[in-house]
Amino acid sequence: MNQKNNLIIGLIIAGVVVMSANIDADPRDFVEGLPNIGIILEEITEVDSSLFVTAFWAMLETIEMAFIGTVVGVAIALPLSLLAARNLNRKFVYVPIRALLAATRTFPSILWAILFVIIVGLGPFAGVLAIIMYTVGFIAKLQYETIEAVDADPMDAVGAIGVSKLQLIRFVVLPESASHLLSQILYIFDYNIRQTSILGLVGAGGIGFYIINYIKFFEYGKAAVFMVVVLVTVLIIDWVSVRIRDKYIVKSQRGMQVKT
Amino acid sequence: MFATKPSKVKTLGKAFAIFTKTIVQMNGISASYDSKNYVLKDIRMSVDRGSNYAIVGQSGSGKSTLLRLINGMMNPSKGKIMVDYQTPNTSDKKFKSLMHKIGYIPQNLGLIKNSTVLENILIGALPRVGGFNSFFKRFSDLEIDNAKKILKQVGLQDKENRKIYMLSGGEKRRVAIARALVQKPEIILADEIVSELDHVTAREIMDVLAEAQATMNLTAIMVHHDLQLALEYADRVAVIKEGEKILEIGVEGDKIVDFQSGNYTQREILEMFSGEPEE
């Protein structure tokens, strides 16, 4: 048993080494390149503070895109996840829905963004559509897994009354999974803000547009302003979502108390 | 008896059933989960309308399965079962309207932990509420008044807005009973509803059920762990052992009577249980 474990760990390490050689990932290059960080740091210290106003509005646009994308995406995902749950539907319903969701998930958001830039043109709308697609594929999977994990006892007890499926969903499935669903929505919003920040790379709006353009022209100081704004925003949103989680979600799950 | 039944008696079978007062009838019922091992073997059982029927047995004796056969949540592999003149079948529309009238309280109660007491018991009223209104949790004043009346009846009048996870074990059982009563049921099926409670609380809960049963004219079929408690409250007690009904007994006066075969004396019945460790 122990020897077998050692063998598996050894094989995994060997795999990492062999694959690194195969893709030319040489740690020596990293060490040699370290002085280059100095160049970046030097450039960054020349922060152009007049850009903070522009960065603020660009960040606001990013947050708006992420918000719209999350809300619309969740609104589409929730009914789909109810149809994809195996404990609520027959096979001929959940199999095609699951296949559709899996297909949606195969594209990362940046590829969706490229696709929508081609369809609706450059700008934030393409980014919003990309976020919606990604959110649907991703959150619907999390949600149908949550719905499938709903306690069988209340489903059984209420099902025995002979209520309709819609009533079962409204009175058992949603209340029983609400705190998990809400937690997942907060998570995807958090995640979508970070994703939207890079969609500008392909011209789909948001703060990433400025970052990529300044980097292209080696104006690291200007790019740094925008990156700092992203960093601060993500930290704030992270903090807010932790507070929301503690207040509304953790408490309702098994009545747990959080030490503050 | 006949006056309380407004619907016209249509079939001879139905007329016969009313005449015999039987609400649940099982003939040679066998049931299994994996088609190899039977959890119930050749059960014969007949429950009178308005009676309090208890099923007693050790864990794994198949008593919970017996309840699930009555509300159609499970189908027997052999034998015939009739509940209010119908064969339980959850996909049958006619039986579905009977399901609305069967209050089922599973062992784990099946309450919605994050919902309030009132929301939980209004679930019992759902069959009478339209799909649109129920989606927006809109209930008529009549239904809400009725639900509150029942909350008072089970002793939870000031707890309607509490969440389930805030309640004690005894209170949770009262909520489950209230949900079943809001259904305006004809039959209540309760699976080990007092097994995990202390003696005092267990009797309080049983009193609530006994009172509801008497005033609302219901048939109660309850699974118990404790023979003494079952004999105290039930008109008849079926004893199940390893999937077979070995006895059907009841108390008449101060004597235990064997209804099934008449072969056992009170002393023999008590001796059968003295060897069994009860919790």
Structure, described:
The complex is a heterodimer of chains A (260) and B (279). Chain A has helices at residues 2-22, 27-33, 35-45, 52-84, 91-105, 109-120, 124-148, 152-159, 165-199, 208-216, 220-250. Chain A is built from eleven helices and no strands. Helices cover 80% and strands 0% of the residues of chain A. In chain A, helix 3 packs across helix 11 (220-250) and helix 10 packs antiparallel against helix 11. Chain A is mostly helical and 260 residues long. Chain B is an alpha/beta fold and 279 residues long. Chain B is 34% helix and 24% strand. Chain B has a seven-stranded mixed β-sheet, with helices on both faces. Chain B has a three-stranded antiparallel β-sheet with strand order 2-1-4. In chain B, strand 9 and strand 10 form a beta hairpin. The termini of chain B are far apart. The model of chain B is unreliable at 1-10 (pLDDT under 50).
- What about the largest sheet of chain B? 7 strands, mixed
> Biggest interface: chains and residue counts?
A-B, 24 and 35 residues
- Averaging pLDDT over every residue of chain A, what do you get? 88
Q: Could you give the distance between the termini of chain B?
A: 41 Å
What profile does the largest beta sheet of chain A have?
none
Mean pLDDT of chain B: 83
Structural class of chain B: alpha/beta
Tell me the fraction of residues in β-strands of chain A, as a range.
Answer: under 5%
Helix content class of chain A: over 70%
Strand content of chain B: 15-25%
Order of helices and strands of chain A: HHHHHHHHHHH
Query: Radius of gyration of chain B, Cα only, in angstroms?
Result: 19 Å
Q: How many alpha or pi helices of chain B?
A: 10
What general form of chain B does the structure show?
globular
Instruction: Give the helix level of chain B as a range of percent.
Output: 25-40%
- Helix/strand order of chain B, N-terminal first: HEEEHEHEHHHHEHEHEEEH
**Overall outline of chain A:** globular
